[in-house]
Design a protein that fits this description.
The protein has about 160 residues and is α+β, with helices and mostly antiparallel strands. The protein is about 20% helix and about 45% strand. The strands form two sheets. The protein has a five-stranded antiparallel sheet with strand order 1-9-3-7-6. Strands 2-8-4-5 form a four-stranded antiparallel sheet, with no helix packed on it. A hairpin with a 7-residue loop joins strand 6 and strand 7. The protein starts with a helix and ends with a strand.
């Protein structure tokens, strides 16, 4: 009888001592940002228009995915216009000479270039202008035909609990 009581008290004390740290770590893990991406469109012509509902998250960036077997020419450039419900929100340029390469795309066949991180001119970042759970219209225009097999991606950070 005494042994059962000791075991019961020991388990009760252990539970009381372990529940708060477990709860704390579970909540921390659920709030950590996880990188995500979604393919927005095949980028197979110099100009196109599309709409995109933004998922829950933060730190949104547009990424150009180019096949690794293709070389992005140094003169490749263009312009992105973003609007919501007919109201222009931002317009920015991009070019291959200053585009930041990234490894964010989970497709091993694609090399990523961040279009929203241009280093030569101060521009508002997409995360400062665009909000999750809103739908935005994009108009992309480039100076030349994009490399065959290119695509446009949205990359962002999303909490595990969203």
């Amino acid at each position: 009888m005494k042994t059962k009581r000791k075991i019961t008290y020991s388990l009760l004390i252990a539970g009381v001592l372990l529940i708060p740290p477990i709860w704390f770590f579970v909540n921390i893990a659920a709030s950590i940002g996880v990188p995500n991406q979604i393919k927005l469109a095949d980028y197979d012509r110099p100009a196109f228009h599309f709409s995109c509902p933004f998922p829950p998250g933060t730190h949104f960036d547009l990424v150009l995915g180019v096949p690794r077997s293709t070389v992005l020419t140094a003169s490749y450039s263009g312009r992105v216009r973003v609007s919501e419900s007919g109201h222009s929100l931002t317009e920015f340029t991009f070019d291959s000479a200053t585009a930041q390469e990234c490894n964010w795309l989970h497709s091993p066949e694609l090399q990523g270039y961040i279009l929203t991180w241009q280093q030569h001119a101060p521009q508002p970042r997409l995360l400062d202008l665009l909000r999750s759970r809103h739908t935005y219209d994009f108009c992309i225009e480039s100076t030349q035909q994009p490399p065959t097999g290119s695509s446009l991606w949205l990359a962002w950070m999303q909490r595990a609990r969203d």
